[in-house]
Structures are given as C-alpha cells and as structure tokens.
Amino acid sequence: MLLTIVKLMSLLHLFHNVPSADAEKIFTCCTTVSRKEIQTPITAFWLQKWNPPCVKAVIFETEGQHICSHWSEPWVQKKVVELHSTDRPSCLFSCRLFQKSKAPEIQPPATPLGLSSGSPAPATSNHPPPLPSGRQR
C-alpha cells in the first residue's frame, strides 16, 4: 500500500493557489486542517506542502467548497488512494486546468504524502554492482 501511495504522490503536482468554485472568492491555501472524516461526496483533491502560513494538508473538493484535511489521518490516505484509482477525474484532471496559473509548481514528495523519513532515499542505478576483487564482467 505504501508503494501505491508513493507512486500516487509521484504523479501529482502540488499548487499553492487553488481556485474556488465561487468566482468571487479565491482559495489561497490551508492554514489549519481538520481531522474529521468528510461525509459529503468528494470530487477532487490536491496536496499542499508546508510553506508558512500554509500548512501541510490534503485539500478535498466537495460540492462548492474546499476542505483542508490532516494528511496523516488514515481515512485521508485511504481516500487519496481510492480517488486516484477510480476512473473519476481527481487531481490529475483538475490540476491540468490550473497549470497556466502563476502558482509555483512544487515537486511531489518522495515518501508517502510527504512524510519525511529523516534519511535520504537510497540511490538507484541501472548498472549491476561491481564484482568482488575488482574483476570485470
């Protein structure tokens, strides 16, 4: 499951500015989050990286509103995987709509939902490791 989440995160683009359904109000970023599970249908989601005053969050879009949820809640992680695996458009569709905005693009995290492991990711290579004693293949 963690591998699925890592793959999901590598596909997503993070944005600071997310337009709201209400044309007069612009949703800038989440400064607080909720741990309460959302009961209304979710139509899309975005990931927001910590960048004060914005906090690390998963932003769920429902009918006409955005809800800032705590990224580490089990129900949030489950919903992100569920939305990504369905045929319904989620962030991949919605984010494409906003790529022309001047919002800075942030690289997706290398760990599930941006959880820092405290150590760098291991380096990978397409080459096999060297043979012992300096022998060549």
TrEMBL record:
The protein's organism comes out as: Paramormyrops kingsleyae
Q: Where does the Chemokine interleukin-8-like domain start and stop, copy by copy?
A: 28-80
Top-level division of the source organism's lineage: Eukaryota
Q: What is this protein called?
A: Chemokine interleukin-8-like domain-containing protein
Keyword annotations for this protein, in alphabetical order, are:
Cytokine, Signal
Q: What are its GO biological-process terms?
A: immune response
Q: Does the keyword Iron-sulfur apply?
A: no
Listed GO cellular component terms? extracellular space
Any Pfam family matching the protein: IL8
Residue spans of biased composition, Polar residues class = 114-126
- Gene Ontology molecular function, alphabetical: chemokine activity
- Could you tell me which residues belong to the region Disordered? 105-137
**Range of residues in the leader sequence:** 1-23
- Compositionally biased, Pro residues: which spans? 127-137
Q: Which InterPro entries match?
A: Chemokine_IL8-like_dom (IPR001811), Interleukin_8-like_sf (IPR036048)
